[in-house]
């Protein structure tokens, strides 16, 4: 944990895609073991900020980043940062479920295998535990060798969460994890997010304000690349300090 009580802190972050500035002077501190939602209109930089937290923007050509991102005590943008180790500690779940075209078991065992776990007994235990934490075990326990592609969209997304949990991350980044799912599957993922904060820090990007209000403890409202306001979710929705936030949460634009 950091001196300010956070697990992850961005300081004066600017990000440019070529000439276009997508983040402007963003500073934010993410509290541990809580769910933090990033909301704001399309194109305001939510996903860009999320991707900075595990250096996924490094893969984008022509990107330039200024500022610091501290994870615990180290700067993840520093030369000493081991990206593979970072992505193990800060996992990511994407908008569209993206299971590998292999068995349910192998999807979950993939990460631990990459990180050197060889014992079948240990892998069995990790697969079972991760699927239980992702609230999927009861639905797949008798068909672990079946293809992950045969699962429903909601099950696939929970499998992707299990795959992320299998390498024991500390932070889970979720980029619109329910946007491809129906309401029942969405509510399962939302319940799961609530359970996850016992053991993990969750940062979720969502278009859906009701979802942010339901699942998060803290909310950051972004607009045109800036973090306009950040605070406890109830305060952001019920008593925002900034007029822009108020206009957005009351549905005056979006
Ligand atoms: N790889 C990229 N190359 C160039 N520009 C990009 C890239 N990714 C995002 N952008 C631009 O950066 C800005 C912020 O995009 P970002 O995806 O972070 O916004 P967002 O708030 O997550 O939007 P949405 O809610 O629509 O997903 C947008 O103007 C977008 O067009």
UniProtKB/TrEMBL annotation:
Keywords: ATP-binding, Nucleotide-binding, Transport. InterPro entries: AAA+_ATPase (IPR003593), ABC_transporter-like_ATP-bd (IPR003439), ABC_transporter-like_CS (IPR017871), P-loop_NTPase (IPR027417), PstB-like (IPR005670). It comes from the Archaea. CDD domains: ABC_PstB_phosphate_transporter (cd03260). Residues 8-249 form the ABC transporter domain. One of its GO terms (molecular function) is ATP binding. Pfam families: ABC_tran. The keyword Cell membrane does not apply. SMART domains: AAA (SM00382). This is Phosphate ABC transporter ATP-binding protein. It comes from Methanoculleus oceani.
């Amino acid at each position: 944990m950091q001196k300010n009580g956070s697990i992850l802190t961005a300081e004066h972050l600017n990000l440019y895609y070529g000439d276009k500035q997508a983040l402007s002077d963003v500073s934010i501190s993410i509290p541990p073991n809580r769910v933090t939602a990033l909301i704001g209109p399309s194109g305001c930089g939510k996903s860009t900020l999320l991707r900075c937290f595990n250096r996924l923007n490094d893969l984008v050509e022509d990107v330039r980043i200024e500022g610091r991102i501290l994870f615990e005590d180290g700067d993840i943008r520093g030369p000493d940062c081991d990206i593979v180790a970072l992505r193990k500690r800060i996992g990511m779940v994407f908008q569209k479920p993206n299971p590998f075209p292999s068995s349910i078991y192998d999807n979950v065992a993939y990460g631990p295998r990459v990180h050197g776990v060889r014992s079948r007994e240990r892998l069995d235990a990790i697969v079972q535990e991760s699927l239980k934490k992702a609230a999927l075990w009861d639905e797949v326990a008798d068909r672990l060798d079946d293809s992950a592609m045969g699962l429903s969209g909601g099950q696939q997304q929970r499998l992707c969460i299990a795959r992320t949990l299998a390498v024991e991350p500390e932070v889970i980044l979720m980029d619109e994890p329910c946007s491809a799912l129906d309401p029942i599957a969405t509510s399962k993922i939302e319940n799961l997010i609530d359970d996850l904060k016992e053991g993990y820090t969750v940062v979720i990007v969502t278009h859906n304000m009701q979802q942010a209000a339901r699942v998060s403890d803290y909310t950051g409202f972004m607009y045109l690349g800036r973090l306009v306001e950040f605070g406890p979710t109830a305060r952001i929705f019920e008593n925002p300090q900034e007029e822009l936030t108020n206009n957005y949460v009351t549905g005056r634009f979006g």
